[in-house]
Structure formats: structure tokens, C-alpha cells
Write the C-alpha cells for this entry.
Amino acid sequence: MQNNAATLQNKDLIFFFLLSNSTPTLPMATIASMLASTRNPFPCCRQPLYPGSRYLEPCGRRTPTVPRFIRACQPSEKVGGDGGGVSASAKSYHFGNELLSFASDNFLPLALVTGVGMGFANPSLGCLADKYSLSKFSTCGIFIISGLTLRTEAIGAAVKGWPLGIFGLASILLLTPSFSRLVMLFQLQPQELVTGLGIFCCMPTTLSSGVALTHLAGGNSALALAVTVASNLLGILTIPFWVSRYIAGGVGVSFPTDQLFRSLIVTLLIPLIIGKVIRETFKGFANFVDNNRKLFSRMNAICLSLVPWIQVSRSRSLLLSVEPKVFLAAICIGILLHLSLLAFNALSIRILSGLSGDYNSKNSKGNGTAVLLVASQKTLPVMVAVVEQLRGAFGEPGLLVLPCVAAHLNQIMIDSILVNVWLRKSNASSTDVKTG
């Protein structure tokens, strides 16, 4: 059977040879012997590449295999005779992908802007949410999520970062309140706008946004949590002193210390412990959280966006009653204050890390990111609670809180932009390492 197949291949080869040479010079006897042979009569021709092939490939020249018919699997997205255009559906599909990618990369700033827009567009919903204390539930949710995502090894990293942690506490409770002296030098009408920002300087760090941003930036979340809880609990003792010294001109001011302390324990410490206990009890759920950390980060961002939504809804009428250029000046003062705090803390962290000789290590960068974000922010809910207890001692409570709402939003927006820049640089560097 194999001999017959080889003979057929040789015959095809000879016929091909005769057809390609219009004047064959071989005698008929030679041709007959070649037809009878089962061997390849032309050693310069290669054997078939696969058993089903009937054609041989000459040595030194490859014959490309060209299919007889070419069919398109899908309709072309090119339109026009020259194929230079792109269909409308392809353009919209590409635009949709770009839009989704932008929303994913800037989820936190978009969530905050959406919250502010909803507060202006329909304040009744925000006021209803404030009536049922939704902001407290959102803060509890943020710290429950922080406990769920808190790895045990991260706590050890937080303990190792104690030098920067101590500096963070000192910056929040002892150093940055002195910035209120500079703020009080500004003169605006109504003056409550400046006084409110001065009180804002004396507050501890934010209850949730610093931790959420540290988590998004890939910093030491455990260290950020420790500094946040400790500064807010200790801040109950330091706030009366600094407000009396810098705002009231040495006049004593009474504060509901016990009430604030209990409120912070309920909204910060207990939810954090609950989240950590759930993580350590249910290992399967802990693995689910670790595999979906991006999802939980977005849940954190949504909870965080509820705070500006509620605050803007409450203050909308007052905001519209203030002269625009005066309120814009108060906004600029708040932005300048936050940039000053960022610069002061960044320079201090750089100096301390340089003295320890551990500035370029991964742990040092994570600790520095956590302390920089946490120590440069001031909390709005505690400030609101303090102003409510002052009972108009420094002016209209709504006007005192109004510039602080803007300052709170601005500090989160600025820091979220910084976090996005850091993440893009980190992703670009990791991509360069992989391609290199």
C-alpha cells in the first residue's frame, strides 16, 4: 500500500516536471523507469510535510500555502471605500471603555463630587439621612471594613512603625493646632467663617477618610487606624485647652468630655474590634475579603461620600446666603491650611526617616504615607459636636461649620488626587519592572 502511494506521488512529480519544461530532453525509456520506481527521482525536492499532501516542495525555495477562499469571521468595523473611518458603534464602545476606566481610577473623588452634587440638588434627602444619623452608621461601616481588611501582620508592622506613629500623634494633638493662630489673622465678614476654621485646626484627625485613603494608597492601614483612634480619644482632652488658648483668648471653655468620649468609643473602637473578630473567626470570609479588597475599598469610598452629602444638605441654605466672593475666600483659606499641613508633615517625616536611615524601604514608605495622610487632616464630625456644645459662644453655629464643610471636602479631594497620582506612579514602575 505504501509503495502504491509513493508511486502515485512520483508520477505526479514527473508530470509536474514535464509540464514545467516545454521541451523535455529525457528519453522515453528513462521516463518509463522513473514512473515504475517507488523512490523520489528528484533528490532536490523535499518529501511532503504531511501524509495527505500530494505536492513536493523544491529545495531552496518555499512555496507558500495560499488558501483558496478568505472569509471574514465578523463584519468589518471600517466604513467607506478607503477603510479609513470607524463605525459609530466602535467609537461609542471605545468611549464607554475609556469612561469606565476613568471612573474606576478616580472612584473616590467622583463619589465625593456626587455626594456634594446630591446635597445641592436635593437637600431634603440629606436632611432626612441626618435625622436618622446615617453619618454615624457610615462611620461605623468604614471602621468595620477596616477591621475586616486588617491583617494580623499589619499590626506588627504598625508596632514597628511606632516612631512615626508617635510623631503623628504629636503633630495632630500638639503641633498643628498652632496653625489656628495664622488662620485667625485673616479678616472676613462674617468673621465666623474665620473663627470656624480656627476651631477646625484644633481638632484631631478625620474619623474615616484618612484610614480609607491610606488603604487605597497601599500604606500601613494598621498604623493609620492606631493613630486615628488614639488621637481622637486623646483629642477630647486637648481640644478645650487649644480652643481656649488660640480662639477664646485664654477664656475657659467647657466641653462635654464624657459624652464625646463615649461617642468615639461607640463609633470608632467597637466597630473596628467587631470587624477584626469577624475576620479572625471566619477564615473563609477573611479569604474572600483578601481576594476582593478593591470591592471593599469602593464600599469604604461610598460610606465616606455620605458625610459630605449630609453636611452640604444641612448647610445649603446658609451657603446660598453668604456672599460668593467671601465664601470663596474662606475656601481658599481652607485649601491653603491643608497644603500647609501637608508640607509641614511631609518635611518632618522626610527628616525623621532620613535620620533613621530607612527612608527608601517599603515599610518606611508605607508608614510615611499613613502618617502623612492622617496627620494632615482634621475631623468635621467632632468639630460639629464641639460647636453645638458651645451654644453660640463664638457666633452663629451654622456659619462656624460652613467653611469647615468646604475645608473637609477640599482636604479629601486633594488627598484623593495625591493618592491617585501615587497609584499611577506605582503601577507604571511595576509595569517597567515586568517589561524590563
Observations:
- The first strand starts at residue 78 and ends at 79.
